[in-house]
Design brief:
Length: 325
């Protein structure tokens, strides 16, 4: 690990003022510290933001509000989260080991770096780590990589399970920076790689995530998160699906779906949602709609299996929503 300085911010204003070039915010540090040990991340200064009052979890109007510094374990166990947005609780439990959930913050989880072994290999070309150097995964091992939203410069998947749930639920986030406060959908936090895969999110310099707002919906309580992975214990998703349905009179009135493990960012499945509206919540309808999820897929040799696995995962996740009705 390279030398760095550590400062502790007591207020949001102090944190923003300290966030000059070469500085990084740190809360739980469950990803950043690992990357610093491997010298993939090389910040000159760390700004400890744990003292900031951003860990509250509460209901505001009809929305669940989750502070950016709330720990994953606290959010997953919170009674209002479990009652109003069980999809969030389930995605958090599936997303990390108990030890990591005790340390990792919500904001840090949403901003964690991509899942790609070549990103961590300093002797391998990686456009995220060193722009213009190339992408070793394209001609290398890419079984775990994305089939949606890829480019000729990167096909790494985004690793957050929570982000998939939040995107499905139309969650928004509030950020604050030197230019003031702004609000936008969580989905808009993430960039597609395109020609600039090293630019992963849309936060401006010095901006800090304050909280996440999750609106209520009739679909919220009939929601499940399904994660398919290489092993049952803590592991990143090969494919995951967040599914939520509002069913009335034996027909689907609203649907919310997003997928993980298949896209270069959390992938909203709007075509699948639209195909479900007005249909009976049965397997034939689920299967017909799920096939639309891969209509824009660009698989390579080792990850072609995801073209089949994603629709099957979506169907099973939709079926699981009936188990909580």
């Amino acid at each position: 690990m390279l030398p760095f300085t550590l400062e502790k911010a007591q207020t949001v204003e102090e944190a923003m003022a300290a966030a000059t070039a070469g500085a990084r915010f740190i809360a739980g540090g469950t990803t950043l510290v690992d990357l610093m040990r491997e010298e993939v991340e090389r910040p000159e200064r760390l700004i400890d933001i744990n003292a900031l009052p951003l860990a509250d979890i509460h209901v505001e109007g009809d929305a669940l509000v989750i502070g950016a510094l709330a720990r994953m374990a606290d959010v997953a166990a919170h009674p209002e989260v479990q009652a109003l947005q069980p999809l969030i609780a389930e995605s958090l439990i599936e997303g990390a080991s108990p030890q990591l959930r005790n340390m990792a913050s919500i904001g840090g989880n949403l901003l964690q770096r991509v899942r790609c072994p070549y990103f961590r290999m300093l002797d391998a070309p990686c456009n995220k780590r060193e722009p213009g150097s190339g992408c070793a995964a394209i001609d290398g091992l890419h079984a775990g990589h994305a089939i949606l939203g890829t480019s000729n410069h990167c096909l790494a998947t985004h690793p957050s399970d929570l982000a998939v749930a939040l995107v499905a639920l139309d969650a928004t986030m509030r950020v604050m920076g030197p230019q003031g406060e702004r609000n936008f959908p969580v989905e808009d936090l993430y960039r597609l790689p395109g020609d600039t895969p090293h630019l992963e999110h849309t936060l401006l310099p010095g901006e800090l995530i304050i909280d996440v707002h999750v609106p209520a919906g009739a679909y919220s309580r009939r929601a499940r998160y399904l994660k398919v992975r290489d092993r049952a214990s803590y592991e990143f998703a090969l494919v995951s699906a967040a599914a939520a349905l509002d069913i009335e009179g034996g027909r689907i009135r609203e649907a919310r779906l997003a997928a993980g493990g298949v896209g270069t960012r959390p992938w909203r499945l709007r075509a699948v949602e639209e195909a479900l509206i007005g249909k009976a919540p049965d397997r034939p309808a689920f299967e017909a709609a799920a096939r639309l999820a891969v209509q824009d897929a660009r698989p390579l040799k080792h990850n072609h299996y995801k073209v089949e696995l994603l629709p099957r995962t979506i169907v099973r996740a939709l079926e699981m929503t009936g188990e909580v009705a």
